[in-house]
Specification:
Elements lengths: L3 E6 L9 H8 L3 E6 L7 H4 L2 E4 L2 E4 L3 H17 L3
Parallel strand pairs: 1-2
Antiparallel strand pairs: 1-3, 3-4
Length: about 80
């Protein structure tokens, strides 16, 4: 398990890209968890999002959301440097 956990609802449009493979290859410290539901009812239908160490990260497109997730991961990892 990584020191940064990214949780994704499998009904979310961010799953259009292979976020798990992308992030885990780019950041070995990250664990991506695909969940059936993150209990933010309806949010996954509105726009792409994920939880990064329990912080919600949003984007208008899956690609924009991925970039914001990367930024949040870098902030989280900075604590350990």
């Amino acid at each position: 398990m990584g020191i940064v956990v990214v949780e994704v609802c499998d009904g979310n449009s961010i799953t259009e890209i292979n976020i798990e493979e992308i992030l885990e290859q780019e950041f070995p410290e990250v664990a991506v968890l695909m969940n059936e539901c993150l209990s933010f009812c309806g949010l996954c239908r509105v726009r792409p999002y994920a939880l990064v160490n329990n912080k919600r990260v949003f984007g208008n497109t899956p690609e924009e959301c991925l970039e914001k997730i990367r930024e949040e991961i870098k902030k989280e990892l900075a604590v350990y440097e």
